[in-house]
User: Which sequence fits this backbone?
C-alpha cells in the first residue's frame, strides 16, 4: 500500500474509532445521572462503586471494539490472514506496548502506527472522563 493510502486508511479508521469512543462516553454521561439518582436513594453506600464500574465498563467495551475494528482493518488489508494474530497485534499496538515480536513490512507500518495514535488519544479521553466523573462523585459525597 502506498504511503498516501496508509495515511488515508489510518485517518479514516482513527476517526471512526474516535467517534465510537466519544459515543460511548456520551452514553455514559446520559445514563449516569438517572442511574445515580436511583442508586443514591436505594444503595447510597455503593453508589460510587456502581457508577464508576458502569462508566469503566462502557469505556473498556469501547476500547475492545476499537481493537476489533483495527484487527479487521489489518485483515482487510491482507496484513494478517487470521483473526488471532490480527487481534494480538492490534491490541499490542493500540495500547502502545509494541512488544516487537511482530514486525510489519514497510508498506504497512504507517497504517499500523495510526492504531497506536488511536489508542493514545482514546485512552486520554477515557482518563479525562473517569477523573472528571470521580471528582464530581467525590464532591457530591462531601456535600
Assistant:
Amino acid at each position: 500500500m502506498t504511503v498516501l493510502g496508509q495515511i488515508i486508511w489510518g485517518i479514516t479508521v482513527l476517526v471512526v474509532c474516535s467517534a465510537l469512543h466519544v459515543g460511548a462516553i456520551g452514553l455514559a454521561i446520559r445514563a449516569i445521572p438517572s442511574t445515580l439518582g436511583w442508586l443514591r436513594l436505594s444503595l447510597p453506600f455503593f453508589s460510587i462503586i456502581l457508577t464508576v464500574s458502569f462508566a469503566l465498563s462502557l469505556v473498556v467495551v469501547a476500547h475492545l471494539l476499537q481493537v476489533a475494528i483495527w484487527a479487521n482493518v489489518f485483515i482487510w488489508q491482507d496484513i494478517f490472514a487470521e483473526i488471532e494474530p490480527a487481534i494480538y497485534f492490534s491490541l499490542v499496538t493500540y495500547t502502545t506496548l509494541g512488544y516487537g515480536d511482530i514486525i510489519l513490512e514497510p508498506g504497512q507500518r504507517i497504517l499500523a502506527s495510526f492504531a497506536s495514535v488511536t489508542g493514545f488519544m482514546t485512552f486520554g479521553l477515557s482518563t479525562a472522563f473517569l477523573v472528571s466523573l470521580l471528582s464530581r462523585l467525590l464532591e457530591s459525597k462531601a456535600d
